[in-house]
Amino acid sequence: MSERDLAASAGPSGADSATGVSDAAMYSLAVDAMGGDGAPGIVVDGLAIAAERHPAARILLIGDEARLAPLLARSKAARSICTIRHAPTAITNEMKGTAALRQRDSSMRLAMDAVARHEAQGVVSAGNSGALLALAKIVIKTMPGIDRPALAAISPSACGDVVMLDLGANVACDSRNLVEFAVMGEAFARVVLGLPAPTIGLLNVGSEQMKGDDRIRQAADVLRASALASQFHGFVEGHDITAGTTDVVVTDGFTGNVALKTGEGALKLAGSLMKQVFNANVMSRLGYVLARPGLDRMREWLDPRRYNGAVLVGLNGVVVKSHGGTDAEGFAHAVDVAMDMVTHNFNERIRIGVAQLGNALASTRPVAAAPDTNPAVPGDAADRTTNRLATTG
Amino acid sequence: MSERDLAASAGPSGADSATGVSDAAMYSLAVDAMGGDGAPGIVVDGLAIAAERHPAARILLIGDEARLAPLLARSKAARSICTIRHAPTAITNEMKGTAALRQRDSSMRLAMDAVARHEAQGVVSAGNSGALLALAKIVIKTMPGIDRPALAAISPSACGDVVMLDLGANVACDSRNLVEFAVMGEAFARVVLGLPAPTIGLLNVGSEQMKGDDRIRQAADVLRASALASQFHGFVEGHDITAGTTDVVVTDGFTGNVALKTGEGALKLAGSLMKQVFNANVMSRLGYVLARPGLDRMREWLDPRRYNGAVLVGLNGVVVKSHGGTDAEGFAHAVDVAMDMVTHNFNERIRIGVAQLGNALASTRPVAAAPDTNPAVPGDAADRTTNRLATTG
């Protein structure tokens, strides 16, 4: 139904409290229907899948009503959770953050506005990452006590999933930012991975205390003296990410972005080598057939759609970025992530974490990094976060 | 034979010029016999293998003569290329760089001294990486025109081997350092990979020109205006390393170290998943047997020993770090790398590259990074560079 129909009807009194979703906002999520390669078709199909998993969700679907109405008409499931809000324009993939800010009637902007006005608790978009970051900072704004939002995502490891941040929202970070990322990553791991006391590692070039630069050593000192001390493992190295040494891996946006893409690249290389091996001759092809059930299971673990949904943490609302090239199943997963965060009061957990850390942070004079003249995220940094591979857990 | 025996004999008139090794130095390489987990046994066994491949090499084998003499007595091959020089002490793995500098009679120090005195053209050591970097900087010294040495190694990609640097010698780098790394990496790729005009990429969070920080954008500007312009591809991302987008990947020591270890970790994860798949049941084990020839070939490509030998580039001599835990075959590979660099006048190529770049560099006011208070390399950074996996080429 469209908003006009909704106004004519009794209208929902707020989301179902049985789901844990707050009644304060009318909608659980505002979804940018026009972002991503297959929008709006993929978005609506994704919401149809999400409707099965979150029947009590209330989705404000924002985009070109003329295109959305017929799509919803064809999908009873999507229709059951969605309300259309018309947006006359959309942000293109090529648009810079500054241009996106000027376009006040885009579907992405109206989705952000809905969160800023407390109509919805979160945003999901598969659109332009740079625009999403710029709009989120300006419209939804950073949470009190948090200096900068960070991009976080789940990544596979030999010991189960690992939360990694920042993946590109901040090219340069000071020691205070790193500490805040640790607090936000810890809250993320509790909510999305369901861990009672996630362990935290600070990414460095060695595990000894004297390794790294002043910035990273000061962040470690603050964490060792903080309320998170018992969960702080200390420094971890690149190979610790996939080894699952800690549940949360904290780093600056430059290093995190490079590490994420390097890990993905290495897994892709391993996959292409395996393919060559199995295609080499009749015997190896037969070998493939025999091992196929396990190989298929491995491919499922490694399905990037299972890792779709990078989260911009540290804002006054939940902002989830779906990969622009994902399909309906992948988009549904990004909706899952957003619903998880909304349902489990992710931001409230961060607020508690920041408050507990208050004194430790107040006594810190941050070791500065170079000014963040150009965030890494525009383009495809957030997209990249979703090409992840699962593990056996 | 020991040096005393050598003095009593006619002595070599210098290395064989047929190998291209300069006659200026009496020895091709000074080898630290006491560095690494299996030293000195592994070192001598490795030199026995190297002797088959480099029969004209002259190796100054430095370490505890009482232990080395019986080892050489048992190996005709190693004996044929080695001359022992006694060193009363050795650098331990736990020793800090500053302590290593004070120990003037260690095998590693005497090996460096031999290069500084032009007795040998290069050093190979499987010992303490931090000590090796500290000693190399102080004893062998940085090449004129180069601000800082960098750690470089070969890494696998879908399009053949790739040179990556810095892998941890400098936690923080300014724009000038990055440009110098590009020059040195290019020379490395010519010599070790035998490429006539290697392409160069600067590691960044995106490939567009406005991505990254000032430091990295200025380095790109300098390279675009330099003698290397035609080989400079621009920015590359983490996944481009294993995709083989460029032959050389340039980055700071922090990012390079993390990227290297993350890639290794991801390949290790893929390997352990494959192992689980093949061990799942009788059918999959039979599948493994059928595909085994190809899988074995893949394992050979992926053999870290094939990638052993990280090079400290930018010094007045060749310095090669072998993995501390490698075996004789791996150590022989590190000797191969060092012989390649000595034979093909690696440092002369860097000198030419720096001279060609002179004007471009002179006009650069480097965009500074934080002071390099604590290099990344101590401990195992260089060691890590050797856990690399090969590709199908």
UniProtKB/TrEMBL annotation, chains A, B:
Q: Could you tell me the keywords of this UniProt record?
A: Acyltransferase, Cytoplasm, Lipid biosynthesis, Lipid metabolism, Phospholipid biosynthesis, Phospholipid metabolism, Transferase
Where, subcellularly, is it found? Answer: Cytoplasm
Q: What would be one Gene Ontology cellular-component term for the protein?
A: cytoplasm
At the top of the EC hierarchy, this enzyme's class is transferase
For this protein, what is the EC number? 2.3.1.274
Report quaternary structure and partners: Homodimer. Probably interacts with PlsY.
Name this polypeptide is given: Phosphate acyltransferase
- Phylogenetic placement of the source organism: Bacteria, Pseudomonadati, Pseudomonadota, Alphaproteobacteria, Acetobacterales
Q: What is the gene name?
A: plsX
